[in-house]
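Quick one, tokens below. Sequence please?
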């Protein structure tokens, strides 16, 4: 009997290790992948996807990075330890992406997977760190001077080099877990946050929808799958970078409302899904979907989330971005049709 129990336990451990090593399918994401990535030219605006909601927008003269999350602590550390920006990992990723100088690092809200690394990215690139008062306190905790911090005005254009940024206060995706909702949402960081710190010390602060104008081109970055009724009424975007993380956990009513209040409101020609890769996986040559164990335990499945987007946007172009490679924005808007079929 003892041997049987031992064999069973060993088999259970082996099965769990297999589930951890395997990941949910990324087939749907690769089917939507932008097909050509020629070298970007000076004066041509391009975007570079660096996982989660980290996006580099540049025309060769002005460069703006959203979030800049590179450290990516593992799940065990997030749950049971403390986390801090990893200077070496941030430097590795900046070098791999070819990022030298930036004009601004914009934190879309102040959770660790958006704002934890942002102060060091700003310091290493000479950028201004732009975000809520909570983000500013993350910056102060990393010894950024106030001269390097900017809390943006709401609903008013902010000129950064050749880009015009408008910050619209919106809502964060509502965690299904009640404890996380209480700890992380509708809370602020009121004092300098000195790392290492607990994951839950990185409170939401303000969540923004970021509108980016470049000449006649209008783009929007929706970093979290939340919405506030009427927040985006009257605005327009040709290109929407749409946070889809967690949509698979929400019911049809929520998904329909998210669609109505964000996508239908902005009426984009093109949707680029973001916030779908595993935020606990080290950044390599391509983003990773969540492992099967997490998917089974928590119901997280990014492919299912993308299917929600497909179902509600069958008349819009949907494109996923390659990892690390700059893609000219005009090619996303005019050069490629969606190539997914069920």
């Amino acid at each position: 009997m003892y041997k049987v129990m031992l064999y069973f336990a060993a088999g259970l451990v082996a099965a769990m290790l297999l589930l951890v090593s395997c990941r949910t399918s990324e087939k749907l994401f690769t089917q939507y992948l932008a097909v050509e990535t020629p070298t970007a030219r000076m004066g041509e605006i391009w975007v570079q996807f660096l996982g989660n909601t980290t996006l580099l927008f540049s025309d060769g003269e002005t460069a703006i990075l959203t979030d800049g999350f590179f450290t990516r602590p593992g799940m065990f550390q997030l749950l049971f330890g403390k986390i801090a920006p990893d200077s070496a990992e941030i430097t590795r990723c900046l070098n791999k992406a070819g990022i030298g100088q930036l004009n601004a690092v914009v934190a879309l809200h102040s959770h660790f997977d958006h704002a934890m690394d942002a102060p060091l990215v700003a310091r290493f690139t000479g950028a201004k760190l732009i975000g809520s008062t909570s983000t500013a306190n993350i910056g102060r905790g990393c010894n950024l001077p106030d001269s390097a911090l900017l809390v943006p005005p709401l609903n008013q254009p902010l000129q950064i080099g050749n880009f015009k940024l408008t910050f619209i206060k919106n809502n964060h995706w509502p965690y299904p877990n009640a404890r996380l909702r209480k700890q992380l949402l509708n809370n602020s960081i009121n004092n300098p946050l000195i790392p290492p710190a607990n994951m839950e010390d990185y409170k939401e602060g303000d969540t923004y929808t970021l509108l980016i104008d470049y000449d006649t081109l209008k783009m929007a970055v929706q970093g979290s799958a939340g919405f506030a009724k009427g927040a985006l009424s009257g605005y327009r975007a040709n290109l929407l970078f749409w946070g889809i993380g967690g949509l698979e956990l929400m019911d049809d009513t929520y998904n329909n409302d998210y669609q109505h209040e964000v996508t239908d409101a902005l009426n984009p020609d093109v949707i680029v899904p973001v916030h779908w890769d595993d935020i606990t996986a080290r950044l390599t040559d391509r983003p990773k979907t969540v492992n099967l164990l997490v998917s089974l335990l928590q119901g997280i499945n990014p492919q299912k989330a993308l299917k929600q987007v497909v179902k509600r946007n069958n008349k819009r172009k949907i494109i996923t971005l390659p990892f690390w490679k700059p893609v000219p924005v005009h090619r996303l808007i005019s050069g490629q049709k969606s190539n997914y079929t069920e």
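The chain has one domain: 25-334. The domain at 25-334 is CATH 3.60.15.10 (Metallo-beta-lactamase; Chain A).
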